[in-house]
Design brief:
Number of domains: 1
CATH class: Alpha Beta
Helix content: 40-55%
Radius of gyration: 19 Å
CATH superfamily: Alpha/Beta hydrolase fold, catalytic domain
Number of strands: 6
Number of helices: 10
CATH topology: Rossmann fold
Strand content: 5-15%
Strand order of the largest sheet: 2-1-3-4-5-6
Order of helices and strands: HHEHEHEHHEHHHEEH
CATH architecture: 3-Layer(aba) Sandwich
Length: 283
């Protein structure tokens, strides 16, 4: 292979990745509009300029997450802040088609405020909730043993919120150690995106007709002592409508102009996380 071809590989790969991201975003955008029209509602509005910024930020967020995947793939272990520890650890739980590295920006934010953090890899895509629940339960037990009596907080993105609900509902001992929970774009009542896909474990777990979701206790029931904040964005093209991200008894935060990936790094979301998980004195 000539040196010129070697030089062309990185920009060509970047163009292919950007093209795929734009295609998928455009496809989900069409499905999003179709869903709202099917239920006889107007999609949440955004100006043409707003949509251009939305697409630009979505592509940018995807490249950032890919970069985190390469740089921090094997760094799910517990990380302690460089300065004083100001509160209990925070467990970061990723969503579908992701790994623990996608939570890197949130972890760095929390660590800058003096919070130890840990992430977890739930497993490869297209598996059942039972498969994903095991590594999460193991990570929770590890934190419970390492920080006896202190408890911990949780930040969960997308599907991670559902798996967190399952683990806490299955094990009251783990639920007793959780102080605060923040879910970001989690399909607590399913997502309209899956109205066209009616088979497989993804549909069974995250569709609006999911028996799994119907039988799943919410945090108010499984972890009654935890303070819960649910974050949603009106322009999430993956988990919608916005009401599906809400849970009874939780504090609801609704944002605009942010996509599903943007929930992992947008400044407005990071502000909400900072406010919902303030540093607190260690017992």
């Amino acid at each position: 292979m000539t040196p010129l071809l070697l030089l062309l590989i990185p920009p060509l790969a970047a163009l292919l990745i950007a093209g795929w991201i734009l295609f998928w975003t455009g496809f989900t955008h069409v499905r999003w509009i179709h869903f709202y029209r099917r239920v006889d509602e107007e999609p949440p509005p955004l100006s043409p300029d707003g949509w251009w910024r939305f697409y630009f930020r979505t592509v940018g967020a995807a490249f950032v997450i890919i970069g985190w995947g390469f740089l921090h793939m094997f760094q799910d272990r517990l990380r302690r802040p460089s300065g004083n520890i100001t509160g209990p650890p925070v467990l970061c739980v990723h969503g579908f088609h992701m790994t623990g590295s996608c939570m890197w920006g949130i972890r760095r934010l929390l660590e800058s405020h003096g919070r130890p953090t840990r992430s977890v890899f739930l497993g490869a895509p297209y598996q059942s909730a039972e498969v994903y629940a095991k590594p999460l339960a193991d990570a929770m037990w590890d934190l419970q043993l390492q920080f006896r009596g202190e408890g911990y907080d949780i930040v969960a993105h997308s599907m991670g919120g559902l798996i967190t609900r399952k683990v806490l509902a299955d094990d009251p001992e783990l639920a007793a150690g959780v102080h605060r929970i923040v879910t970001l774009g989690s399909p607590h009542h399913g997502t309209g995106l899956l109205s066209w896909l009616r088979f497989g474990p993804v549909y069974q777990m995250m569709s609006r007709e999911s028996d799994f979701i119907r039988g799943l206790a919410d945090f108010q029931e499984s972890a009654p002592g935890a303070e819960v904040t649910t974050v949603a964005t009106e322009h999430d093209l993956v988990v919608y409508p916005v009401s599906t991200c809400r849970l009874s008894g939780s504090r609801e935060i609704n944002l605009r102009g942010i996509g599903h990936l943007g929930l992992l790094m947008a400044a407005d979301v990071l502000d909400v996380i900072t406010e919902a998980l303030p540093p607190s004195p260690r017992p």
